[in-house]
Amino acid sequence: MNFVKRTKRAGDGAATLLMVVPATVVFVVMLVVPVGLAFYLSLTDWDGYSAQPKIIGGSNYTHLFSDPVMRHAAFVTLLVAVAGTAGMNLLGLGFALLVNGTSRINRFLRVVLFYPHVLSALVVGFLWSAILGTTGAVNSLLTAHGGSVLPFLSDPTWALITMIAVLVWAGFGVNVVLYLAGLQAVPRSLVEAARIDGATRWQVFRHVTLPALGPVVTVNIVLSLVTLLKTYDLVVSLTAGGPAGQTQTVAYLILWNSFHDNRLGFGSAQSVVLMIVTGILALVVTRMRRRGEMAVYS
Amino acid sequence: MRAQHLSRAAVGTVLALALAACGGGGGFSGKSSSDGGDKGTVRMLVNITPNLTQSYWEGLVKPFEQANPGVDVKIEAPTGKTVADTLPQQLAAGNAPDVVETLMADRTLAPQMLDLTDQSWTKGTPLVQEAALGGRIYTVGVGEQAQSLIFYNKTAFTKAGIAQPPTTLDELTQDMGKLKSAGYLPLQTAGDFVTGLQMLQLADPSLAQSHPQWYQDIRAKRLKVGDSMLPYLKLYKSWLDKGYLDKNAMGLKYPDSQTRFFSGKSAMYVMGSWFTASEATAKKDFEVGVFPAPVQAGQKSPGPQGATMAAPYMVLKSTKHRALALKLVQWLVTDKAAVTSQLQQDGNFRKGYDRKFTPLEQQVQQILDAAPSGVPQGEGYGDYTLPSGFNDAWNTQVQGLYVGRSPEKVASAVDEWVSAHS
Amino acid sequence: MSELTVTESRAEEGTAVSEAAAPERRSVRRRSGLPRAVFLGLVAIFMLTPLYVLVVNAFKPQEEILANPFGLPVGALTTRYLSHALHNPQFNIVRGYAVTILFVVAVNVLSVALAGPVAYVIARSSRRRYRLLLLTFLAGTFIPGQVLVIPVVYVLKTLGLMGTIRGFVLFETALTLPFSVFLYAGYIGTIPPTLDQAAAVDGAGRLRTFWKIIFPLMRPVVATMVILNTFSVWNDFVNPQIILGPGSGLYTVTTGVYAAVSQYSTDYSVVFPTLLLAIAPLLVFFVVMQRHIISGLTAGATKG
């Protein structure tokens, strides 16, 4: 009520209220309340349909940190996020430099690099599992020519590498596009001045282009990181968490625990931890990058 | 202009929503069921497999719909991986189906299910008493599945010089050696759910003899799952080390393993009786035989057969069409044509419901008749149950043998899971 | 993110410059021409191979796929399996498309209708409470929507919206709000307030001013958000899978593909045709519109 009165007094009128309230209500009801609820549910033993979730304190959390399955999933998730972010950004920046410009070929290449992003991760996973699976296209070709099967998806180490590679394949096109946009902002005069001063291509890149790209790099890294930390669809369709549960990510386990084992309270605890870790990592990267940029500029 | 309209409409929607939110209502206790009469739509969540396709199910219930004008049976396929994780989603969402196929009542599910104890037609349906929970009947089934069967390639056995199928696990191991020398992959397996299932199927007959009170002992903590399974895990690991199993099998899916077996590359395949339905239609250039899973030396052979309920049905308490749902389930498990069709489609058995048997099915029937008793398996059913989700956890752990984990480690990981979930 | 300062116009200038390609740049390109061309050619082949495998195998029977997965037996191609996939009783692909398009449109319309006005108020006010509101929305961009589904189920159930189109659209819209508000507010900040004042003098209310004067100027940034939202709604899997569930009978393209493929993932004469049908229209749309989509993706995002 107070809010309403003050707004009125300010002369913004009911119109302002009408502009602010709907979005805020939807945002609060659908995102803020669920985040709060996740905290609450994580302290309960909710099974998804019992009338009243029982509060059991922090035991979901103690269980979570002692559970070897969970710990392995945390390792897999971090590995996927870090290796995937590195891969996406190195390739993203590299190819942005290679396909910069608007020649026909460059435009074609941009489409080719970007198109996997149009496909859903689920489709990408099914497609690659049909290509790399034990009976898939590549192994069929190998065995037809007397070779032996390569365990792309049946050996845990291979499967992890395959998963990361597929994630990078499917996602780095977005980074290319974002870096390309960033490259347009690099003052051409600076680059040309450096070239005239006799700087090599690498020196120009290192001392002119890269520093100017600073913020774009940050955005790209944070974006890749946040996306990869919640990897789920691809696990479902590419490996189904296997072999022997070795490619289960945290997001995969959250949904598995919640809806297969009826432990939504435990799943909520995992969600809470994942959200906190995502937030912290995003902040740390932003901070580190900002400091790095300052160092470059000073 | 249009944007303005839209925005107004949107704002309206949102405000209505906010009001609805404040107005309360909802809550989690589902409104107790009322009877929707004998017309309407009955939703049934079913398992979809290569044998039991969506169109099979739709065809199955068609006669029921025709016999009951105004009734529509809506077949729902799982949106999750399986029925086991789709039903909880639906229960959590408050839009559970009226009937669910494939799951059996355990302590978590039973409170959500209709008590069928007073329904007289449940008497005499297969395994109905075994599946009862504290004397109350929640689950009724169509037939019985024999679990502990080993199907084999007769040509391979002949070539390897094996005259008689093995009756003990030691003989089985020896025969595997012969089969390997003859150029066959001795035992076909796969990733998916197959790895863990085959281990359970293999172990049933001997485990039931060495630990007759297995479920009670586990529940009372007199025995650990991992400890009791360790000998089998070790045996399995030794097969793996000797190359009797394909090291890359984890990349295969369930249908792949069947395809491989029928292609004649592998000599044996551990699977339940429903495999006979695939065998009946598969292209192959050898004859398939079957023998019960062997036992340990000194035990009675054949041992108890792993026996599970085929096509178990439950009616949800929350159903708005109680009478209709009950009528449907009664029809599904007692109507001669419906039962026979289901038995035929998924290779299952039931006394008194004769159908045309393939030679292989006749052999399975003989094995069932010769078995001294039937025993539950894995997660089990009725009063004998391990925590729900056990079969999948077990499967994941057994697959660990393929990624270099020791049998001891697998056993202790299984125990850890059981203790964390009970 | 606010540090990104490339404007759309500048991006266009940039392309214009390279289109005219200074002679010096051309010579550079020619010098490194061959190895670069070979390398990029190989990369293009690598990127396109999965698509090739998908397309050719959608027209082949299982035995042919297993025997020769990369081959193109012109004589033996058949549309039988595609037509099977099109008439799959488990997943009506045409209906899946219709449902998904409906969701995409609804979410986009609702998202703009909600986020636009609030972003306008935020951008035009220096009040603390609006700064705070912006920060709250900004924090929302870090919420991983997929793992939030459990409490969202709880909320939707309480509202009686679980398993409904309304509930799903509302949640998907909510997921788009944080980034939209953030982008829109930044963009509106670059539009001179004198425009609003002129409208106010003409007697237009705030709502009117926004929709009539400001909103038309926001086209690039709205296009960016529409593209982003379309991808995220179209490709979402967890949320439709759980919020809609099997009870609603509603399948999006993704959940439908899952239903049609996951049980038959080794029957490649089901997998490839289904996947092809699921992606072909979208892919064609993307190729036709690629210029607008790729540049639109960054046009709005790099301003403000």
TrEMBL record, chain A:
GO terms for cellular component: plasma membrane. Belongs to the binding-protein-dependent transport system permease family. GO terms for biological process: transmembrane transport. Keywords: Cell membrane, Membrane, Transmembrane, Transmembrane helix, Transport. This is Sugar-transporter integral membrane protein. The chain crosses the membrane at residues 15-41, 73-99, 111-138, 158-183, 204-229, 264-285. PROSITE patterns: ABC_TM1. Residues 74-285 form the ABC transmembrane type-1 domain. It comes from Actinoallomurus iriomotensis. Its main location: membrane. It is found in: Cell membrane. It is a multi-pass membrane protein. Gene3D superfamilies: MetI-like.
Automatic annotation (TrEMBL), chain B:
Pfam families: SBP_bac_1 (PF01547). Keywords: Signal, Transport. Residues 1-20 form the signal peptide. The keyword Signal applies. The keyword Heme does not apply. InterPro entries: Bact_solute-bd_prot1 (IPR050490), SBP (IPR006059). Belongs to the bacterial solute-binding protein 1 family. This is Solute-binding protein. It comes from Actinoallomurus iriomotensis.
Automatic annotation (TrEMBL), chain C:
GO terms for cellular component: plasma membrane. InterPro entries: BP-dep_ABC_trans_perm (IPR050901), MetI-like (IPR000515), MetI-like_sf (IPR035906). The keyword Cell membrane applies. Keywords: Cell membrane, Membrane, Transmembrane, Transmembrane helix, Transport. It is a multi-pass membrane protein. It is found in: Cell membrane. GO terms for biological process: transmembrane transport. The chain crosses the membrane at residues 37-59, 97-120, 132-156, 168-189, 210-231, 270-288. Residues 1-24 are annotated as: Disordered. Residues 97-289 form the ABC transmembrane type-1 domain. PANTHER family: DIACETYLCHITOBIOSE UPTAKE SYSTEM PERMEASE PROTEIN NGCG (PTHR32243:SF24), MALTOSE TRANSPORT SYSTEM PERMEASE-RELATED (PTHR32243). Belongs to the binding-protein-dependent transport system permease family. This is Transporter. It comes from Actinoallomurus iriomotensis. The lineage of its organism: Bacteria, Bacillati, Actinomycetota, Actinomycetes, Streptosporangiales.
